[in-house]
Amino acid sequence: MNFQIRDAITANMVGNSATEIREVVEDAIKRGEEHLLPGLGVFFEKWWKTAGEPEKETVLKHLEQSFQG
């Protein structure tokens, strides 16, 4: 079986509202379970591919600050 996590997550999220997507993200973070991290990575990848450079720079600055400790 050739299981593609990107395809499965995309199929599960197609048609979801912003509110529903937020709930998925917040639930995954709240649970803190390692197996949910790849799904959040797919969310980030989808966003990254469609974001403009100013948006990416803003997020990168926020991430830099988040990892300062």
Automatic annotation (TrEMBL):
Main subcellular location: other
Pfam families for this protein: SSPI
Reported induction: Expressed only in the forespore compartment of sporulating cells.
InterPro entries assigned: SspI
Protein's cellular compartments: Spore core
Keywords recorded for this protein, A-Z: Sporulation
Domain of life: Bacteria
Gene Ontology biological-process entries: asexual sporulation; sporulation resulting in formation of a cellular spore
Family: Belongs to the SspI family.
Name of the featured protein: Small, acid-soluble spore protein I
Organism from which the protein derives: Paenisporosarcina quisquiliarum
Name of the coding gene: sspI
